[in-house]
Design a protein that fits this description.
The chain has about 180 residues and is of the alpha+beta class. About 15% of the residues lie in helices and about 50% in strands. The protein is built from 2 helices and 13 strands; from the N terminus they run H-E-E-E-E-E-E-E-E-E-E-H-E-E-E. It has helices at about 1-25, 150-155; strands at about 30-35, 45-55, 60-65, 70-75, 85-90, 95-105, 110, 115-120, 130-135, 140-150, 155, 160-165, 170-175. Strands 2, 3, 4, 6, 7, 8, 9, 11 and 12 form a 9-stranded mixed beta sheet that branches. Strands 5-1-10-13 form a 4-stranded mixed beta sheet, with no helix packed on it. The relative contact order is 0.22.
Length: about 180
């Protein structure tokens, strides 16, 4: 009987230690920088009105990051030039499951020296989402490179107007 109690005690102790060490690893916050880049496109300008950047984590749900909101000409974000969307954003350590960028209403494209509005059907309400599975350790700084493909994202409509159907991918997640 004593042997069974002793084995039970040891087993419970090991389970407690393992579960404590697993939870301890994901407690705390990580920091995140997000930069946006683009590849060349067949337009004179592609202006995107970035309002908010958010990430979804398993430990904290949706987290709004301090966003450098503004209108960015994607075509200027080439050849090692990037736009800093988030500097030192704080998020709960653990797994990030989604990335979301919410656009404003001032999205335009310039073709043949004429500026056209870019209609963004869902980007203003639910945002542009990317599913991601990346783990962030506490007290570490990470950088995400977001590639916004202007060439594939701007679609000409039959009436001569243009839609913005963003094609985004996370190019890299680097620990700094």
């Amino acid at each position: 009987m004593k042997k069974i109690l002793f084995i039970s005690f040891i087993s419970l102790s090991l389970i407690s230690i393992v579960s404590y060490s697993c939870t301890k690893k994901t407690k705390g916050n990580a920091k995140l920088n997000i930069r946006m880049i683009d590849a060349p496109g067949d337009f004179q300008q592609v202006n995107v009105d970035v309002q908010q950047v958010e990430v979804h984590t398993q430990n904290g749900g949706w987290v709004s990051l301090p966003t450098n909101a503004g209108i960015y000409d994607l075509l200027t974000l080439q050849n090692d030039v990037s736009a800093s969307l988030v500097n030192q954003g704080v998020l709960p350590a653990g797994q990030m499951t989604q990335f979301r960028m919410i656009l404003g209403p001032n999205n335009t494209v310039m073709v043949d020296s004429i500026i056209h509005d870019l209609d963004t059907p869902s980007a203003q309400q639910s945002g542009l989402k990317i599913n991601v599975k990346t783990n962030f350790a506490p007290n570490e700084l990470y950088e995400i490179i977001l590639d916004f493909d202007a060439e594939k994202s701007v679609v000409k409509k039959g009436n001569g107007g243009y839609n913005l159907k963003p094609v985004l991918k996370l190019e890299a997640v680097n620990q700094l």
